[in-house]
Design brief:
globular
């Protein structure tokens, strides 16, 4: 049998003056620093990612054949020597990392083929024999340094002192290993680098023999607040600082209390709080040099933890308890009361948000809130009969039942969602249009939102029974593969103002705005905000050119620029549904990472027989179709239907025998019905404007009738 130590010796013999067989010490290579989410990157990939390797041993190590493995890649290192007390930097893009940090390109190797995850990932260093030499499983939430995730939040959540984010491009905070002699699995052994102060190829700024104490976990139960600490021999005192959050004011007085140690856990008793109270708190630790705030960390994008004292609500429906000051609630109305736009003037406050708090499943979420909806429906809703709770300081009082949108910071999201959209569920009442409709697109593997019913309470009162609709954006699109470019069509029905017609016709300069500026207003970017609209403009210019040249040119355009199979699925489903409002708004254009475009649905209210029965045309959107609403067509749909009518007919026939069949539709309708609580909906202040049983029956009948129409009007 070959001695394992001797085998290692043979592998590295060229780096040594002598070899002493099995007594030769094993290489001591450590993962010492990770930049997993550089700030303000302006590309699909985070090109400035790196993992630093350090030599903590007594001899140089040849790294050829070693592997750096993460969840999404397995990278074999090339021939490079790691000197004693030296460093090698393994990079996503070696040239970029060397240039950004001004380090010797000879110690930077790459390029690894994918990306480190911006949330949770496991990074392993594996030697040529397959042994795991070092391993770290980092996260982007406490107790890990939150700022390592590109400072932990978007610009709207960060202090002015670190803005604009563009000044930190390719940098931000790395996570640094404090002691190479302690395990990489020890969370306290990792600290954030100084802002833009990562040290690839050099000793870490936070290097020390003893990691600082950190709070590993914390919480509130009954009247006691508790914290568990990482092991540290020098802790001499722990304090909790807290205050009751008055949402209508700032600068509330705080109280600091010493905490009592019980087997490594620290607790303190707080006074009793009434229902509907938000309490903010943080922890100070004295490890011999005076008390310092350690949780949240000074680099974290939030300054306080929070808990809520709220009454139990007897419901099985998804519950959101919103707390918002009367002044901020009133501001939401004044933001929208003048409408979205008037001619060449855009309302600058139309999408403005205000700070608020949402309590969900016992957790406190800081959110930015606004009303949600189109320029037609954002201000329209039934008036609540009464509102004996803190009410908006401006606008209708009692307030109206309107749709809401809550935007959440990256560091603390409900179910990983960027935003919670709660629809007032009136035009598409009681929610089958969106819930069943989007499920049909998902069954065809076309990205579409998930939905569920929800109850919204505001400032302690039951406000409305809502339909929660997933917000299309980066978080949603990640479920369908690498995130591309997503544009929401939100224009107008006629040209003549700042906004163009988002029916995919070319947009021209107007109102003192360039065509690029009008495209940006008309097609809102939902994912990569750092990019221009150039790709979209080129796409629609090319569509216009193809239309002028006839059907062969249009067919070639679609075959070259679009995922035709996905577009056939979308067109088959949307036109089977008898679309009410997809002509010049309420759809998405999405450029996948492979360069192909698709179309995605939005706002399906009044489809599925809601505005026109199942006998309607199969080609709504084609110019001149008699069933186009108010005569509106859609340029892209018109070109596609003219180019692929035979294929579209065939795809409709396939789908009415499959995902659009009565059996398939009925199963989804039944699932939606089972998830609803009609009694709770009726108990809301304004109740329901429709009937669950009636819409359930009419939706099922529509599927039967529409199948007959498709089979009668298309050729097998």
């Amino acid at each position: 049998m070959i001695d394992r130590g001797f085998a290692r010796c043979l592998l590295v013999a060229s780096t040594m003056s002598a070899c002493s067989g099995s007594d030769e010490p094993a290489p001591q290579v450590r993962i010492s620093e990770i930049l997993y989410h550089p700030a303000a990157e302006r590309s699909y990939d985070d090109v400035a990612e790196f993992v630093e390797l350090a030599n903590a041993g007594t001899r140089p190590v040849e790294l050829a054949g070693w592997r750096l493995v993460a969840d999404d890649f397995d990278f074999t290192l090339p021939a490079v020597r790691l000197p004693i007390d030296g460093y090698v930097v393994v990079a996503k893009d070696a040239a970029t990392v060397a240039a950004v940090w001004g380090i010797d390109p000879a110690i930077v190797v790459g390029d690894w083929p994918a990306n480190l995850k911006n949330g949770k990932d496991i990074v392993q260093l594996i030697d040529p024999e397959g042994a795991v030499v070092d391993r770290v499983a980092y996260e982007d939430e406490a107790p890990w340094p939150v700022a390592g995730d590109a400072l932990g939040a978007g610009a709207r959540w960060l202090p002015a002192s670190v803005l604009p984010l563009s000044q930190h491009e390719h940098k931000g905070h790395s996570i640094e290993r404090v002691s190479l002699d302690r395990e990489a699995s020890e969370v306290a052994n990792w600290v954030p680098s100084p802002l833009d102060g990562a040290t690839p190829g050099a000793p870490n700024a936070g290097a020390a023999e003893q990691p600082p104490p950190i709070v590993m976990g914390h919480g509130y139960s009954g009247s006691r607040i508790g914290a568990s600490l990482s092991a540290h021999p020098g802790v001499v005192g722990v304090e909790v600082e807290w205050f009751v959050d008055d949402l209508a004011s700032t600068g509330e007085p705080t109280t600091r209390m010493a905490m009592t140690s019980q087997a490594g856990n620290y607790t303190a008793s707080l006074p009793a709080f009434p229902d509907h109270t938000i309490v903010r708190y943080r922890f100070h630790i004295d490890s011999g040099a005076g008390a310092q705030i350690v949780s949240p960390r000074p680099s974290d994008p939030y300054a306080w933890h929070a808990f809520a004292v709220v009454p139990q609500v007897g419901t099985t429906t998804q519950l959101y308890q919103l707390y918002i000051s009367p002044a901020n609630w009133g501001k939401l109305w004044t933001n929208i009361e003048d409408g979205r736009d008037s001619g060449c003037t855009m309302n600058p406050t139309w999408d403005d948000e205000v700070p608020a708090v949402v309590v969900h499943d016992g957790e406190v979420y800081d959110v930015l809130a606004r009303y949600q909806g189109s320029r037609y429906n954002r201000r329209n809703g039934p008036a609540l009969p009464a509102w004996p709770y803190p009410a908006p300081s401006a606008g209708p009082n009692p307030p109206l039942a309107l749709s809401w949108r809550f935007i959440m910071p990256r560091y603390h999201r409900i179910d990983g969602q960027e935003a919670i959209t709660l629809n007032k569920n009136r035009q598409g009442c009681p929610g089958y249009d969106a819930s069943v409709g989007f499920a049909l697109w998902r069954k065809a593997n076309i990205p579409a939102p998930r939905t569920n019913y929800a109850r919204l309470d505001i400032n302690g009162g039951y406000y409305h029974y809502m339909l929660q609709i997933e917000a299309p954006g980066e978080a949603m699109m990640q479920r369908f593969g690498p995130v591309g470019r997503l544009y929401k069509a939100q224009g107008k029905e006629s040209d003549g103002g700042a906004l163009g017609v988002s029916d995919e016709r070319p947009i021209v300069p107007m109102c003192g705005l360039t065509r690029e500026q009008r495209y940006e207003l008309t097609y809102d970017e939902q994912t990569h905000s750092w990019e221009t609209h150039d790709e979209l403009i080129t796409l629609l210019d090319d569509l216009d050119t193809a239309r002028a040249s006839g059907v062969p040119a249009m067919k070639d355009f679609f075959a070259t620029r679009f995922d035709v199979n996905a577009l056939l699925d979308h067109m088959a489903i949307i036109n089977w549904s008898v679309p009410f409002d997809d002509m010049w708004q309420n759809h998405f254009l999405y450029r996948k990472r492979d360069g192909k475009w698709i179309v995605m649905p939005w706002d399906l209210d009044l489809n599925f027989g809601g505005w026109k029965d199942a006998n309607a045309s199969l080609y709504i959107g084609e110019q001149g179709d008699p069933d186009n609403r108010s005569g509106f067509g859609n340029v892209l749909k018109d070109a596609f239907i003219k180019s692929y009518r035979t294929e579209l007919d065939a795809r409709m026939r396939v789908h009415v025998a499959g995902i659009l069949s009565p059996a398939s539709v009925n199963a989804i309708v039944d699932d939606v019905t089972a998830s609803a609580n009609p009694a709770e909906a009726e108990a809301a202040p304004v109740g329901l404007s429709c009937s669950f049983p009636d819409r359930e029956a009419s939706f099922k009948a529509f599927a039967v009738e529409r199948r007959a129409v498709v089979n009668a009007r298309t050729t097998p």
